[in-house]
Amino acid sequence: MARFFYSLLLYLMTPLIWLRLLWRGRKQPEYLRNLGERYGFYRQSVPEKLIWVHAVSVGETRAAQPLIEGLQVRWPEHRILLTGMTPTGREAGLQVYGDKVIQAYLPYDYPGAVDRFFRHFSPDFGVLMETEIWPNLLAGARRYKVPTVLANGRLSLRSARGYARFSALVRPAFAALSGVAAQTPGDAERLSALGAGPVEVCGNLKFDVPPPVDKITLGSEWKKLVGQRPIWLAASTREGEEVLVLEAWRQVCVPDVLLVVVPRHPQRFDEVAGLLQRQGLRLARRSLGMPESDTQVWLGDSMGEMAAYYALADLAFIGGSLLPLGGQNLIEAAACGCPVLIGPHTFNFKQATEDAIAAGAAQRVDSPEMLAATVNRIFSQKTELSEMRSAAGSFARTHQGAAQRILTLIERWTNPAGR
After folding, report:
1. Pick from 215, 30, 54: which is nearest to 123 by CA?
2. pLDDT value, residue 416
3. What are the residue ranges spanned by the domains of the chain?
4. Is 10-203+401-418 a CATH 2.40.30.10 domain?
5. In the prediction, which pLDDT does 230 show?
6. Active-site residue set
7. Superfamily for domain range 213-398
8. Residue 416 to residue 212: CA distance in whole angstroms
9. Distance between CA atoms of residues 135 and 163, nearest Å
10. Which residues, at least 6 apart from 271, have a Cβ–Cβ distance to it below 8 Å?
11. Prediction pTM value
């Protein structure tokens, strides 16, 4: 009954969903393409044997790389269907996998759309990345006898409390999973409490994602062109944070330091450029070339080059954390050997952040003033900067291995050999 009313609400919200698509399509026209797929209508031809992996957007798409490559090795007779929900995630899938996978949008969670999805693709089994729990989708997977696993599962305390308010709806969805590979013991406990089972702790897949060699090379080339200037990176900044970063920037007294700002969302590139210009800063944009010798801020308005920015930087601040937005992934920075500063709000990446701080790879700052003071201190103490860089690489290597653990569980929980 709870799922019936949930589906009814979805149908009633359809005009709002269309308005949201049109609104987002103003800045990203890609949102208005392949609309049929969002309702379960597909044109792709379907191979006889198919494994379905769902990664909602860019971060999950990139994190799935070691898992998808492992699936291709273990079940070479299967093709991979990679579904997502955003155009940027789809573009990331094209960059990472090319034509090695089939890509499509996962339909909205309407009962009819879900039925069309499973009838068209008929996957042998499915893997959902992180916390993609959709009641009709998981009910459909059970109805069509598609074992489905939650991989790299994570659930913050805040999200768990939210789910618990709708337990009549979400408990059957969690119970429909064939198994959950959780990132941390805390995630496992919260997922189990909501009805998921079996649940095992496997670590974070993002530690297994190697930085792209071509991007590391690109970052090294940038560094040579920039010269001896110290480089401070503000990575994955969110709306409202650039103002705080610039407040800190004006208090930084490191000679000739170059600030590199890379907004989290590409639709904000022009907005952030306008902010920087209004602040009277000498600005260069990645899309227009390299910074000049007198450039104060280089705007990273490019997609898929974050590893290059980390390879370029001497020190990085990870955005989404000065404001209560939950933080962003710091694992990629560590894998590139880049020391990290992180704000007070990291509830979406709680364990990884705490582990990085304990390992000496990251430091927490509570305000723009503390951010500026920490940047000044670290750049003035070369030994501390070198030690943090070394600790970052060690931290990333120590936590690898989740992909193989998850693959073993997928084989146990889905039994694809018998399908």
Report:
1. 54
2. 54
3. 10-203+401-418, 213-398
4. no
5. 96
6. 60
7. Glycogen Phosphorylase B; (3.40.50.2000)
8. 31
9. 12
10. none
11. 0.85
